[in-house]
């Protein structure tokens, strides 16, 4: 009836194995994380030359840019997955 053993034991998985598994399952998540790190690095570099802008406004704009980068990458990944699954499906594979 019901299988009492788990299919995959996540406790035996190291962080590197988990990242490798996640990158295979959702490669656009990794692109989003890399984009987030890039935006944060660029923001840290530009923080010195922010001019007359207040720190709170600068950080608010940086947060919006970082979130937009991640959401855009995940949206592109979702659109790619849906297009691959429904629009470009191979009839011979079914």
Notes on the protein architecture:
The chain is mainly alpha-helical and 94 residues long. The protein has a domain at 52-93. The chain contains 3 helices and no strands. Helix 1 (15-25) packs across helix 2 (27-46) and helix 2 runs antiparallel to helix 3 (55-87). The model has no long low-confidence stretch (mean pLDDT 82).
Layout of helices and strands:
Layout: H1 15-25, H2 27-46, H3 55-87
InterPro entries: Hypoxia_induced_domain, RCF1
Keywords: Membrane, Mitochondrion, Transmembrane, Transmembrane helix
Subcellular location: Mitochondrion membrane
Average pLDDT reading:
82
Low-confidence runs of at least 5 consecutive residues: none
Instruction: Specify Rg, calculated over alpha carbons.
Output: 20 Å
Shape: flat
Oligomeric composition of the shown chains: single chain
Can you describe this structure in just a few lines?
This is HIG1 domain family member 1C. The chain is mainly α and 94 residues long.
Task: Using brief descriptors, characterize the structure shown.
flat; 94 residues; single chain; mainly alpha
């Amino acid at each position: 009836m019901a299988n009492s053993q788990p299919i995959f034991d996540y406790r035996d998985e190291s962080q590197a194995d988990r990242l490798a598994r996640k990158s295979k399952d959702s490669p656009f998540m990794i692109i989003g994380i890399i984009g987030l790190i890039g935006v944060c690095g660029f923001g840290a570099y530009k923080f010195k030359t922010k001019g007359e802008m207040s720190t709170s406004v600068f950080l608010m704009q940086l947060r919006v840019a970082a979130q937009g980068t991640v959401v855009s990458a995940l949206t592109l990944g979702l659109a790619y997955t849906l297009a691959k699954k429904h629009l470009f499906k191979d009839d011979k594979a079914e």
